[in-house]
Every structure is written in structure tokens, then in C-alpha cells.
Amino acid sequence: MERLEALHSRLQLTISGLLVVLICWGLISILRGRFGNGYTAGLWIAQLLLIAQSILGLLCLLRVPNPIYFALHSIYGLLIVTVLPAMLHYTQQRTGKREAILLTGICLMVLVMVLRAFETAV
Questions:
Q1: What is the pLDDT of residue 57?
Q2: Rounded to an integer, what is the distance from CA 43 to the centroid of its chain?
Q3: 85 and 44 in contact (C-beta within 8 Å)?
Q4: How far is it, in rounded angstroms, from Cα 40 to Cα 94?
Q5: Would you say the C-alpha torsion 6, 12, 13, 14 has a positive or negative sign?
Q6: At residue 67, does pLDDT exceed 80?
Q7: In angstroms, how far is the first alpha carbon of the chain from the final one?
Q8: What is each CA distance from 93 to 87, 90, 99, 102, in whole angstroms?
Q9: Residues of 46-77 as b/e, b for ≥16 C-beta within 10 angstroms?
Q10: SS3 label, residue 96
């Protein structure tokens, strides 16, 4: 179980790094006025990592004697997993500057929530 908890805490670093790359890529896409399929693929990779992180978190939560203590951490996890697919669905089939701004903003918001969730964990 200790390895599972270590993986859960270390995966946060990978996700944070990927989100920083996606934010930089998004800023370049904003300057270009559009984004491509590679950016969308990067967002889906980030989403898969976030889902894996959530599953690991749920497995770690089963071991905790008082899960109410981690309520805020769990709320962040739930929001993190749902916000990116919702925005990808909203911007579906559109690759303009407006959508690049929205997706870059969402990546920034998810990064802040990932860092905040890391702070609320014990």
C-alpha cells in the first residue's frame, strides 16, 4: 500500500509538468490563432493521467480510517476529472483562437487545482 501512495503522490509531478507544457503549447496556439490535433491529443493524455490519479486516490482512500478528513481533497479530485472533458466536449470540432484560449485557461485552472489538491493531502 505504501508503494500505491508513493505512486499517487509522484504522479502529481508528472501531471503538473504535462499541464505546464500544455499551457505553453496553448499560448503558442493562441498566438497562431488555432490549435491542431496534437494539442487535443495532449489534453486527452492529461485526462487519462488524471483518471489514473483519481483511481489511485480512491484506492488509497479505502485505507484511511476517517475519509471525511479528505473531503476537500476528494472534491478537488472530482472537479479535476470532470472539467477538462467538459471543455473538450464544448469546443468539439472547433480549433480557433477562442477555443485555444478556453482550453489554455482550463489547463491553467486544472494545474491550480492539482497543486491545491496536493496541498490538502496529508
A1: 87
A2: 9
A3: no
A4: 11
A5: positive
A6: no
A7: 15
A8: 12, 9, 10, 14
A9: bbebbeebbebbeebeeeeeeeeebeebbebb
A10: strand
| Segment holding 80, helix H or strand E | helix 71-90
SS3 79: helix
Q: How far apart are CA 66 and CA 78, in angstroms?
A: 19
Cα(19)–Cα(97) distance, rounded to whole angstroms?
A: 19
Give the pLDDT of residue 121: 75
| Cβ-proximal residues to 67 (8 Å cutoff; 6+ apart), any chain | 61, 74
| pLDDT, tens digit (0-9, with 9 covering 90-100), for 11-64 | 999 999 999 999 999 999 999 998 989 999 999 999 999 999 999 988 888 877
Q: State how far the Cα of 10 lies from the Cα of 114, in Å rounded to an integer.
A: 12
Q: What is the pLDDT of residue 122?
A: 62
Amino acid at 72: L
* pLDDT, mean over the chain: 89
